[in-house]
């Protein structure tokens, strides 16, 4: 089985990334977990609106936490590296401050000597807590408090975390060229724009609901990152798959709507068969090239370690000589 070196996800994607990358679940097991999750978590009772006013969340976050705790146990992110062949996995949350919102990564790795990430993060969080933080969608679930810091859904800062994943890969493996980037979206719905100038329109102003919708769409849309990467990466190194779907909320649970979403995805897969074939062909010869890249990386790390070990001594000798 082909193993990716770095797997990164946001929100629902974080749960999938951890399930496949760390928990080693199959796609079928992930689908089963997701169906169970939405069935238990997205239950909106008659008190949902008052609950929203009091807690800023329509749904009971404790139910989500209980499912994540059951699936993940009390394992800490970094502990997963004890398992042979474990990929580097990170999930993204939005760290809430008094005046700004920043990207935060929970990860199962550290960085080599002389390398660091521009993103704050930690390898010491429990897996279930990190997934809870990454999936704390505003108005759906309450924020997650960890070590005195509030975390919300990673979609606020990186709904498409592909750029975060690339940066992390370059920080983990400095000097090693990226062989392949595969980005998976969970559906691209056409935004609904209000045409104020259509014939017969009496009101030429947007309502507050329309303005709020526009702000939310601008904040969480995923395609700007995709368009940037299309320009920066050659087509044989970057693949994005994101099916167009009929509009559905993230808390959609109606069986007929879920069937529609699956049908949309299946049609997209069928229409994208050639791209999937190209990707599979690129992945086949990866083994030997990847092996030599890893050898090069290991040698480079040894050299950098020795340089960092002795450079202070050399500098002291130079200072002593000059004086």
UniProtKB/TrEMBL annotation:
SUPFAM superfamilies: FabD/lysophospholipase-like
Pfam families linked: Patatin
The UniProt record lists the keyword Lipid metabolism: yes
Chain location of the short sequence motif DGA/G per the record: 153-155
PROSITE patterns: PNPLA
Keywords assigned: Hydrolase, Lipid degradation, Lipid metabolism
Active site per the UniProt annotation: 11, 153
InterPro entries linked to this entry: Acyl_Trfase/lysoPLipase, PNPLA_dom
Gene Ontology biological process terms in this record: fatty acid metabolic process; lipid catabolic process
UniProt name for this protein: PNPLA domain-containing protein
Residues annotated as domain PNPLA: 1-166
Keyword Glycoprotein: no
Motif (GXSXG): 9-13
Gene source species: Rhodosorus marinus
Source taxon at top rank: Eukaryota
GO molecular function, one term: phospholipase activity
GO cellular component term of the entry, any: membrane
């Amino acid at each position: 089985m082909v193993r990716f070196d770095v797997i990164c996800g946001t929100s629902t994607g974080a749960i999938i990334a951890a399930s496949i990358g760390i928990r080693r679940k199959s796609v079928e097991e992930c689908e089963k977990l997701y169906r169970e999750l939405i069935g238990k978590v997205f239950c909106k009772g008659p008190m949902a609106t008052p609950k929203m006013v009091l807690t800023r969340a329509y749904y009971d976050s404790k139910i989500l936490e209980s499912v994540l705790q059951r699936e993940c146990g009390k394992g800490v992110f970094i502990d997963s590296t004890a398992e042979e062949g474990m990929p580097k996995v990170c999930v993204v949350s939005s760290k809430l401050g008094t005046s700004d919102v920043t990207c935060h990564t929970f990860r199962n790795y550290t960085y080599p000597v002389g390398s660091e990430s521009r993103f704050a993060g930690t390898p010491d969080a429990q897996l279930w807590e990190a997934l809870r933080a990454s999936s704390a969608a505003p108005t759906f679930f309450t924020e997650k408090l960890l070590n005195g810091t509030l975390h919300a859904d990673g979609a606020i800062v990186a709904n498409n975390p592909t750029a975060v994943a690339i940066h992390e890969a370059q920080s983990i493996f400095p000097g090693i060229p990226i062989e392949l980037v595969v980005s998976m979206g969970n559906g691209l719905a056409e935004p609904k724009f209000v045409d104020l100038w259509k014939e017969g329109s009496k009101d030429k102003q947007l309502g507050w609901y329309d303005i709020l919708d526009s702000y939310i769409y601008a904040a969480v849309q995923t395609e700007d990152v995709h368009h940037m990467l299309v320009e920066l990466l050659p087509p044989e190194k970057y693949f994005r798959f994101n099916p167009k779907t009929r509009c559905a909320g993230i808390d959609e649970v109606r069986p007929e709507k879920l069937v529609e979403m699956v049908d949309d995805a299946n049609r997209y897969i069928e229409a994208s068969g050639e791209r999937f074939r190209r990707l599979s062909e690129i992945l086949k010869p990866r083994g030997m090239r990847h092996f030599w890249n890893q050898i090069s990386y290991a040698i480079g790390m040894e050299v950098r370690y020795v340089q960092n070990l002795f450079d202070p001594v050399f500098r002291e000798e130079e200072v002593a000589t000059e004086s």
